[in-house]
Write a structure and sequence with these properties.
The two termini are 35 Å apart. The chain has a 7-stranded mixed beta sheet with strand order 16-28-27-26-17-24-25, sandwiched between helices. The chain has 773 residues and is an alpha+beta fold. A hairpin with a 2-residue loop joins strand 22 and strand 23. The protein contains 26 helices and 28 strands. Among the domains are: 70 residues, Alpha-Beta Plaits, CATH 3.30.70; 88 residues, Calcium-transporting ATPase, cytoplasmic transduction domain A (Distorted Sandwich), CATH 2.70.150.10; 131 residues, HAD superfamily/HAD-like (Rossmann fold, 3-Layer(aba) Sandwich), CATH 3.40.50; 124 residues, Calcium-transporting ATPase, cytoplasmic domain N (3-Layer(aba) Sandwich), CATH 3.40.1110.10.
Length: 773
C-alpha cells in the first residue's frame, strides 16, 4: 500500500490473494463500506487498489484500510518499489510452477490407475487399483491445491464467492465421492449406492488442479509480460551517478543529486536525470522517451532526458530535475494512473462478477438435483452405463469447474495495461481509459496550425539575390542578424552556420523596432528589414518587387529585404514550414473516416494556403486563443471531437474537447489540459495514438465477447444440456482445461497489443496504411 504523503487524499494499496473479478469486487466493497472512503478502484492484473479518502488522510486511516482488506481474507501492505513488487511476483510464479509440476507428476499415475489399468485385485476390503489412485491424488488435492482451498475458505468466511470457491467445491465433491466409493466397504454407515458405484473422479479432481495451476501459471507469466513496457522504463533509471565535484567525478546515489549538479555520462550509459548538456556533444538515443527511432545529435545547451542513452562520447549534463521529477518518472506515474482506470463497460462486468459465483452455485446444484432425480430415465434412453448419482456428481463438478469469472475480470484491465504500456514505450502517454474509449468513438479531429501542422518556428525557405548575389545577400543578412535574438534572425543565422561559414565583421548596428536593422559590413552601410525600412535605405524599389513581396506576405511569409550601399541586392523569405509528415498523417486520418478540421488564429488567406497544401477542406480561421473553446463546443454538436494542439496556447480548447491531445510536450508531460500527451512533436504521433486507442478498445471488446460467450456456452454444456440427445457430458477434466484456457486466452489476446507499433510515414517511404498488430 503506497502512501506518497499524508497531505494527499489518495492512498494506494498492494493487495495480494485476488484471483478473479469477484475478488476485486470484494476488495472494492469492503473498502467502500468504510465511512471515510469516497471511492475505490481495484486493478486485478496489477494487484493494486487506489482509495480516495475524505476528511484528510492520516496514518490511522491507512492502517484501517490495510486491516479491513486483511479481514476480508486478502493481503495488503504499503507499496514497495515497483521492481521489488515484480521480483516478488516472479517468486510467487516459481512457487506456482513447482506446485504445478508436482500435480502433473502425481496425476500421471492417477490417470493410469483410474483409466487404463484393469482389475489389480484387492488389498483387504479395498479395490487395489482405486486405492492406489486415491493415494496418488491426495497430495495433489492437499498440497498442490492448498492455495485454492485456503482462498476458498477465506472467501466463504467473509460471505463472498470467487473462483477458488468453485475450484474447491468441485474438487472436494469429486474427492469426497471417490474416497467414499473406495473406502465404502469399511464404512457401513454410508448409503449403499455410493460403494456400489464403479465410477470415481480421482483423475477429474487431479486434472482440475493441474489445469487450473497451469492456467494460473501461464496467466501469471502473461501478466508479467503485460507490464514489461513499464518495467522496462523503470529499469532505465540508474541508481548511481557520477557527480563532478571539483576536478573529480564522485559516485553517489541518484536520490542525493540535486538540481544544478554536473553529472558525467560516458558513452554507452543511460542519462540519469533531465538537464542540459554542459560540455561535450554526441548522439543520444531518445526512443525510450519520444518514440523516435533515429538518434539525435546533441551539443552544449541542448536538453536531454533521463532514461535516454548516450551513444558515442562522454558528456557532462547540468541537471534540472530531481530523481522523482524527471520526464521518465512522470511517464511511469502517468501510466500507473491510467492503468487504474475503468471503462463504463468494466463497471457492468464488475456487477456481473459480484453475482456470478452465487448464480453458478445455484446452477450447479440444480443440475445435480435434476440428474439425480431424472437421470435413470435419460440414461436408459441414451444407453450410457452410469448411475444417476454418478451422472449428477459429474454434472455438479463440471459446472462448478467450467465457470470462469477470471476471464471477465481480466478482459479490460489486461488490454489497458498492455495498451498504455506500449504507448508509453513510444512516447504516447494516455492518461486514462476514458480517453481511449472516447478517442475510439471520435469522428472529428481538430488541428491547430502553428506547431501542429507546421513546424512552429520560422525557417528560411527562399533567398533571392539580384544578379546572382544570393550568397552575398545571406552573408550580409547573417552579419546583421548575429546581433539579434529575434526568431527571424535565428532562422537566418541557423542557415548561415549550417553552411559552415563564420560571422562577418559588423559594426554600428541599430535595431529599429518593427522595421529591421542597419549597420556596417566591410565598412559599407547595409540594412535588412521591411519594405518600409528599405525604401528609406535605397534609391528605388521596382514595382514588380513590391507586388511579389505583397503576394508572399498574404500567404504568411515574412520577407526581409537586404540593401547594401543604397542598392537593393535581394531578399530572404522566412516562414513557418509545414511538417514533412503532416500531409500523409492527415490523409491517413481521413482514410479512417475522420473529418479533419483546421482551427487557427491566423488570417484566412494564410490558413487556407496551408490547408490546401495538406488536404484539409474545412478551415476555421481568425480565432483568438480565448475563442477556441467556443469553436470546439460548436463542433461538439456535430459529434465527438478530438483536439490536437501544443497544450499551452490551446489549453482551453484541449480541456473542452472530448479528447485533448497535446503534441510536443517535451519535459512538460503532465499537462493538466490534455487527456493524451505526446512527448514528440510529429503529427504522425497523434495519428499513432488514435490508432493505438482503436486497437486497444477492439482488444477490450473482443476479450469481453469471448469471456461472455465462453460462460454462456460452456456452463449449459457442463450442466448436461446435450446429454439427452447425444449421451455426452463434458468431463470435469475437460471443463477444467476449458476454464484455464478461457482466462489464458484473454490475457494472450491482450498481449498481442505488444506487436503494435506506430505507423511510419515519410514522403520517401510513400504511404503506409498499416500498423503492426
Amino acid at each position: 500500500m503506497e502512501v506518497n504523503d499524508l497531505d494527499s487524499d489518495i492512498v494506494s494499496l498492494n493487495v495480494t490473494g485476488m484471483t478473479c473479478a469477484a475478488c476485486a469486487s470484494s476488495v472494492e466493497r469492503v473498502l467502500s463500506n468504510m465511512h471515510f472512503v469516497d471511492s475505490v478502484s481495484v486493478n486485478l492484473p496489477l494487484e493494486k487498489a487506489v482509495i480516495s479518502i475524505s476528511g484528510g488522510l492520516t496514518a490511522k486511516t491507512v492502517e484501517d484500510c490495510i486491516e479491513v482488506v486483511e479481514k476480508a481474507g486478502f493481503g495488503a501492505h504499503e507499496v514497495m518499489p515497483a521492481l521489488t513488487v515484480r521480483e516478488n511476483n516472479e517468486l510467487e510464479l516459481r512457487k506456482k510452477f513447482y506446485s504445478m509440476v508436482l500435480a502433473f507428476v502425481l496425476t500421471l499415475p492417477v490417470f493410469v490407475f483410474s483409466m487404463i489399468l484393469g482389475d489389480m485385485g484387492r488389498i483387504g476390503p479395498f479395490d487395489l487399483r482405486l486405492f492406489l489412485a486415491m493415494l496418488a491424488t491426495l497430495p495433489v488435492y492437499f498440497v498442490s491445491g492448498a492455495a485454492f482451498h485456503k482462498g476458498a475458505w477465506r472467501s466463504i468466511l467473509r460471505g463472498a464467492g470467487n473462483m477458488d470457491v468453485l475450484i474447491h467445491l468441485g474438487t472436494t465433491v469429486a474427492m469426497l465421492w471417490s474416497c467414499l466409493v473406495v473406502m465404502g466397504p469399511a464404512l457401513p454407515m454410508i448409503p449403499e449406492f455410493i460403494p456400489a458405484s464403479d465410477h470415481v473422479f480421482f483423475d477429474g479432481a487431479a486434472f482440475i488442479i493441474c489445469f487450473v495451476l497451469l492456467g494460473s501459471f501461464l496467466e501469471g507469466q502473461a501478466k508479467l509480460k503485460a507490464t514489461d513496457s513499464v518495467h522496462g522504463l523503470m529499469k532505465l533509471q540508474p541508481t548511481e551517478v557520477r557527480v563532478i565535484i571539483g576536478d573529480d567525478a564522485v559516485s553517489m546515489p541518484i536520490d542525493r543529486v540535486g538540481k544544478g549538479s554536473l553529472v558525467k555520462v560516458i558513452a554507452g550509459e543511460i542519462i540519469p536525470l533531465d538537464g542540459f548538456i554542459h560540455t561535450g556533444e554526441g548522439a543520444v538515443n531518445e526512443s525510450n522517451i519520444t518514440g523516435e527511432s533515429l538518434p539525435s545529435h546533441k551539443r552544449s545547451g541542448d536538453e536531454v532526458f533521463a532514461g535516454t542513452s548516450n551513444l558515442d562520447s562522454t558528456i557532462v549534463v547540468e541537471t534540472t530535475s530531481l530523481v522523482d521529477d524527471t520526464v521518465l518518472s512522470n511517464i511511469i506515474r502517468l501510466v500507473d494512473e491510467a492503468q487504474m482506470g475503468k471503462a463504463p463497460i468494466q463497471r457492468l462486468v464488475d456487477k456481473v462478477a459480484g453475482v456470478f459465483v452465487p448464480i453458478v452455485l445455484g446452477l450447479s446444484f440444480s443440475a445435480f438435483l435434476f440428474w439425480h432425480i431424472a437421470g435413470d430415465s435419460v440414461l436408459d434412453a441414451v444407453g450410457v452405463e452410469m448411475t444417476a448419482s454418478e451422472l449428477a456428481v459429474m454434472a455438479l463438478v463440471s459446472t462448478l469447474v467450467i465457470a470462469c469469472p477470471c476471464a471477465l475480470g481480466l478482459a479490460t484491465p489486461t488490454a489497458l495495461v498492455v495498451g498504455t504500456g506500449v504507448g508509453a514505450r513510444n512516447g504516447l502517454l494516455i492518461k486514462g481509459i476514458e480517453a481511449l474509449e472516447t478517442s475510439y468513438k471520435s469522428g472529428i479531429v481538430v488541428l491547430d496550425k502553428t506547431g501542429t501542422i507546421t513546424v512552429g518556428k520560422p525557417q528560411v525557405v527562399d533567398i533571392r539575390g539580384f544578379q546572382g548575389n544570393s550568397e552575398e545577400t545571406l552573408r550580409i543578412a547573417a552579419a546583421l542578424e548575429s546581433e539579434s535574438s529575434h526568431p527571424l534572425a535565428t532562422a537566418v543565422n541557423d542557415l548561415w552556420k549550417s553552411k559552415g561559414h563564420g560571422s562577418s565583421t559588423v559594426s554600428g548596428t541599430k535595431t529599429l523596432a518593427g522595421l529591421g536593422m542597419t549597420g556596417y559590413v566591410d565598412g559599407v552601410e547595409v540594412a535588412i528589414g521591411s519594405l518600409d525600412l528599405i525604401e528609406t535605405k535605397t534609391d528605388s524599389i521596382p514595382m514588380e518587387v513590391e507586388a511579389e513581396i505583397s503576394e508572399m506576405s498574404l500567404l504568411g511569409s515574412n520577407v526581409m529585404l537586404v540593401s547594401r550601399d543604397r542598392k537593393l541586392i535581394g531578399w530572404i523569405e522566412v516562414r513557418d514550414t509545414i511538417r514533412e509528415s503532416s500531409l500523409l498523417a492527415i490523409e491517413e486520418m481521413q482514410a479512417m473516416g475522420i473529418e479533419v478540421i483546421m482551427l487557427t488564429g491566423d488570417r484566412h488567406e494564410v490558413a487556407g494556403y496551408i490547408a490546401s497544401k495538406v488536404g484539409i477542406e474545412r478551415v476555421i480561421s481568425g480565432v483568438k486563443p480565448e475563442e477556441k473553446g467556443g469553436a470546439i463546443r460548436q463542433l461538439q454538436e456535430e459529434g465527438v471531437v478530438t483536439m490536437i494542439g501544443d497544450g499551452i496556447n490551446d489549453a482551453a480548447a484541449l480541456t473542452i474537447a472530448d479528447v485533448g491531445i497535446a503534441m510536443g510536450a517535451g519535459s512538460d508531460i503532465a499537462l493538466d489540459s490534455a487527456d493524451i500527451v505526446l512527448v514528440g512533436d510529429d503529427l504522425t504521433h497523434a495519428l499513432s495514438v488514435i490508432q493505438l486507442s482503436r486497437a486497444t478498445m477492439l482488444k477490450i471488446r473482443s476479450n469481453l465477447v469471448w469471456a461472455f460467450l465462453y460462460n454462456i456456452l460452456g456452463i449449459p454444456l457442463a450442466m448436461g444440456l446435450l446429454f439427452p440427445w447425444t449421451g455426452w457430458l463434458l468431463p470435469p477434466s475437460f471443463a477444467a482445461a476449458a476454464m484455464a484456457l478461457s482466462s489464458v486466452s484473454v490475457v494472450m489476446n491482450s498481449l498481442l497489443l505488444n506487436r503494435w507499433s506506430p505507423i511510419g510515414l515519410s514522403p520517401s517511404k510513400g504511404r503506409n496504411t498499416k500498423s503492426t498488430m
